[in-house]
Amino acid sequence: RMTGQYLPTAKKRRIMVKAKSWVMTKHFDGFPKKSDFGLKVEELPEPKDGEVLLEAVFLSVDPYMRLFSKTHIKEGGVMIGEQVAKVIQSKNPAFPVGSHVVSNSGWRTHTLSDGTGLTPILPEWPKDVSLSLVLGAIGIPGLTAVYGIEEVLGLQKGETLLVNAAAGAVGSVVGQIAKIKGCKVVGSAGSDAKVAYLKELGFDEAFNYKTVGSLEEALRKASPEGYDCFFENVGGSSSYVVLQQMKKFGRIAVCGTISTYNDSEPQTGPYPYSTMLFKELKMEGFVYSRWQHKDHETLKRLLAWVKEGKLQCREHVTKGFENMPAAFMGMLQGENTGKAVVAV
């Protein structure tokens, strides 16, 4: 008769997770194509001590991904980006199983992490507010809006602000914060539905830049006295037209130039320097991370505005990880009103 000590011990079954990721098979030439993306599947081991296994819940698609694709991604590399993820296995006490984090894991369904660069969701996050807003109004787009308005433009009560791509993730927050601060806000967007949305948000004036006969006339009609501040998201030749409408000592915050991101050849001219000289304008480019030390306090302010109903957040949600490339390309074509996110 066999005694217990000779019985074979049951091996602990290892749970292997199949992780999917979207890679950039080749650098984009002009507008991204479906064939520029490839889906990769790999098995991930269990976390080691200090590690956690993350499962994506919401993923972000943003214009900067197109801009940074040449410099930050090698061919065959995973597409960059933020996600809200759930901790599904943990050997790191700072991140218990079931908790949610913001992670720069890129376009992946599952990620092994040692905890570096993971940001836990604000502890005061309300149950009735979708966690996807961490990728939008209460995340990088919201921070970008606040820092552009407060740190770069120094927007004052009673001033007039123009924002383009105004129905996008950043622009829609910019306009609403400017209204909170007691300013006149003019927004430019690319469809009548978006213009209607801007009016809903409380923009004083809004127009569809694709259907106005003359951008110059539309700007003048919206604010005959000109503009104190311009929050620039689009770039290209339209911005030159805006500069002509700036007031003396006007300020311009350059946040993005989405109209140029898919150009194979760089656009040239017209050049703004004489206008800037005679109007004594101040133009500054910025990236939100310059004020990282203020992020925690700023996110709490944004969350408070959402809870008070002062900041509305519309999202354009695409369902399914398999649709990441389509969601990305759609966002670059302006299909989204508000923040574009993918729900896994």
TrEMBL record:
Q: Which organism is it from?
A: Oreochromis niloticus
Q: Where in the cell is it found?
A: Cytoplasm
UniProt keyword list: Acetylation, Cytoplasm, Fatty acid metabolism, Hydroxylation, Lipid metabolism, NADP, Oxidoreductase, Phosphoprotein, Prostaglandin metabolism
EC numbers listed for it are 1.3.1.48, 1.3.1.74
Domain of life (superkingdom) = Eukaryota
This protein's record includes keyword Hydrolase: no
Gene (UniProt): LOC109197783
The record's catalysed reaction(s) read: pentan-2-one + NADP(+) = (E)-pent-3-en-2-one + NADPH + H(+); 20-hydroxy-leukotriene B4 + NADP(+) = 12-oxo-20-hydroxy-leukotriene B4 + NADPH + H(+); leukotriene B4 + NADP(+) = 12-oxo-leukotriene B4 + NADPH + H(+); dodecanal + NADP(+) = (2E)-dodecenal + NADPH + H(+)
GO CC entries:
cytoplasm
Q: Which family does it belong to?
A: Belongs to the NADP-dependent oxidoreductase L4BD family.
Principal cellular location given in the protein's record? cytoplasm
Instruction: Describe, as the record does, how this protein assembles with itself and its partners.
Output: Monomer or homodimer.
Q: What is this protein called?
A: Prostaglandin reductase 1
- Which InterPro entries does the record associate with it? ADH-like_C (IPR013149), ADH_N_2 (IPR041694), ER (IPR020843), GroES-like_sf (IPR011032), MDR_fam (IPR045010), NAD(P)-bd_dom_sf (IPR036291), PTGR1 (IPR014190)
Enoyl reductase (ER) domain: residues covered: 30-342
- Give the molecular function GO annotations: 15-oxoprostaglandin 13-reductase [NAD(P)+] activity; 2-alkenal reductase [NAD(P)H] activity
Keyword RNA-binding on entry: no
A single GO BP: prostaglandin metabolic process
